[in-house]
Prior knowledge:
Two copies of one chain form a homodimer. With 443 residues, chain A is an alpha/beta fold. In chain A, the strands form eight sheets. Chain A has a six-stranded antiparallel β-sheet with strand order 20-21-22-29-24-27. In chain A, strands 8-11-9-10-12 form a five-stranded mixed barrel. Chains A and B meet through β17, β18, β19, β21 and β22 of A and β17, β18, β19, β21 and β22 of B. β19 of chain A pairs parallel with β17 (292-295) of chain B, so a sheet runs across the interface.
Amino acid sequence: MNIVLLSGGSGKRLWPLSNDSRSKQFIKIFKTEDGEYESMVQRVYRQICSVDSNAEVTIATSKSQVSAIHNQLGANVGISVEPCRRDTFPAIALAASYLHDKRGVAAEEVVVICPVDPYVEKDYFEALQKLGECAAVSEANLLLMGIEPTYPSAKYGYIIPKSKENISRVDVFKEKPTEEKAQEYIEKGALWNGGVFACRLGYVLRRAHELIEFTDYQDLFDKYETLTKISFDYAVVEHEQHIEVMRFAGMWKDIGTWNTLAEAMESSSIGKAILNDKCENVHVINELNVPVLCMGLQDVVVSASPEGILVSDKIQSSYIKPYVDEIHQQIMFAEKSWGSFQVIDVEEESMTIKVTLNAGHRMNYHSHEQRDEVWTVIEGRGRTIVDGVECQAAVGDVIRMPAGVPHTIIADTKLQVIEVQMGPDISVHDKKKYEFPNTTQQK
Amino acid sequence: MNIVLLSGGSGKRLWPLSNDSRSKQFIKIFKTEDGEYESMVQRVYRQICSVDSNAEVTIATSKSQVSAIHNQLGANVGISVEPCRRDTFPAIALAASYLHDKRGVAAEEVVVICPVDPYVEKDYFEALQKLGECAAVSEANLLLMGIEPTYPSAKYGYIIPKSKENISRVDVFKEKPTEEKAQEYIEKGALWNGGVFACRLGYVLRRAHELIEFTDYQDLFDKYETLTKISFDYAVVEHEQHIEVMRFAGMWKDIGTWNTLAEAMESSSIGKAILNDKCENVHVINELNVPVLCMGLQDVVVSASPEGILVSDKIQSSYIKPYVDEIHQQIMFAEKSWGSFQVIDVEEESMTIKVTLNAGHRMNYHSHEQRDEVWTVIEGRGRTIVDGVECQAAVGDVIRMPAGVPHTIIADTKLQVIEVQMGPDISVHDKKKYEFPNTTQQK
């Protein structure tokens, strides 16, 4: 199975766990059988591999998510990097060109395209596989998956099939309706549109060339910023006459708000939390290493991370976005391809962060104009290069990097350093990158 | 006015703001006219000085609070240090001996004794001053202040006076009653017992010598641990025949729980907080430097500090103690006589703290057996002494202290350092103190 996972933007609706640099799909909140926690992306990837160990997975996403994907899924997964956000039609067009031109996927091969963030079980991916197999033999140009509605939701688009067969021609698409309308549609056999499509790769490429003037992947990539924002539904699906829908009746949840996320949690809390016996329907996700104590609360979600603390009535939590839009503060935690960093102290003219480098990874070779830095190694082994001179680095070693001096650190094992930054104007933009150097070994 | 303020123990009922090392009276939650925040202790001390600029203030407290008192009130305030906690009668006996033997207060002089933590206005201290003046001319041995009840509370003891005069002989004392009983007492003119007494110093000393065998202050101090825990009310007040009570009708609040503390707050939040318009009767005290967002909550108090996060229904918050008793974690923030420290990162074999030294203060000269330490100066100027060698220290300087090597830092201005501790067994108990050294100056 060739599967393209569409990985959406920086969701603020799960603040403080999601933020500009960490989308909801990377938050580790789902308990696995071995008691560890995994993210939405990890869960979906694991489920796909368990259904089809030969699956070729490509993630269509923005540049800002590449680090987190490599960090959580490793290097084997394909990534179609969008230079900027342009909605699903340009994203799918780019991913299709990437598969064809960069990964050598033939135009006759079937691709299954689906969002990266449904909360589902293995049967969903078995259905996707079947959708792909049907697309390979179908006379329709496009096969959709329609989800059997469990209630008359006003949050989803509806697909009304011509028949109640398992696979049926599509009669008509309906935008997000009122709940009354939704009830009517459901009585006519309507299905939720979960944004899942299967078709031959060539079909997507033809539609892409019809609507966008481009020669190949690189050309499309280069002009990506000039493309119009438009969804695949509007641009392609709703104009296609030869289109069919396959019913799916298994578990499917859209985890977009704290309320729905809480429903998917296996226990009432993740992280250090104490709930007294007067709490009812309370969920806590605490990423800090100090406890959250809840007493006498009803229908409340509490979430604490290095970014902030949310305490919300569950229904109210859907209205979070405008409040979070007003919070302007620096990123306190971020996952990178090489590891992660966390801001642990901020003062007027200094900032202290903890940097974690995964084994075998390294920072860019870089310098800062406006600040001096000091590293103290607190875990692991590695090497530093400062001004072209390489040194071994182990626990207890201290490395000083005055402003202007290029430096990097290379992790031979998992490596942690406390980095103290000092200067009058500390900014993430104050960074000059250099080619990785030939070094003089000092010891 | 000679005034003794009784400063009680480590209140857990205002966790996470109060903890084993920080009692509620040191939390800065009261907004002053210039927009700064002050603690209960600072507020009371400021109020006393504004009523009587010559007031001699002595704080009776345990060793563990001495640093915080010096830090918040400066060095001028007298402190009667209790070697351990033994309730109010031993504490008052010790404070009386301290005043007599150490501060030269004559036996004929009047002292006013009161708790450090009532939430009151200036008129309360004007009443205390009057209480002292009356005690100086009264034939009674002991004068109490009785607070006009504002509701039939079951939380306070009651004093029933013989008459409704402003100053009256006491008829009888009543323990904390039921609300029905309280109503009856109030109808008879009963007053709340706020734990405020005025008498001649000699009176307390006589009672102390009657009940405890000791020669002088030092002797009492040395045997303090052997004393029986008993309150001044039980030991003295309730046996005294020549006793009067003075009425006080001004504002008086006992801020012992989150619920009552919230009532005393001038605004709905202190620190970074956002409350949406669906919040009703919500109070937030946030000591962290990331925001707390509250949505759709009713009658809730939220408090966040480096120690943890409380989210509680206001009424439920009175039942916090047993839950906090179960939280066993290291102190994350503490005020010391020389400044303060805050734990900013904890790993398996390292801990990182931010140390703030007030100008003119210094650490003990000390070493650790089980850990190496590194200081990076992030603010201010001072000097370090490491293994007897003194060096200047300024922003950007890095000081390494291997295990076993004695070290200290002296702040010439306010000084902040990031201290990285590294070792297999990091503990507050791993500390060896030395005499302050004669140094060799390196630069």
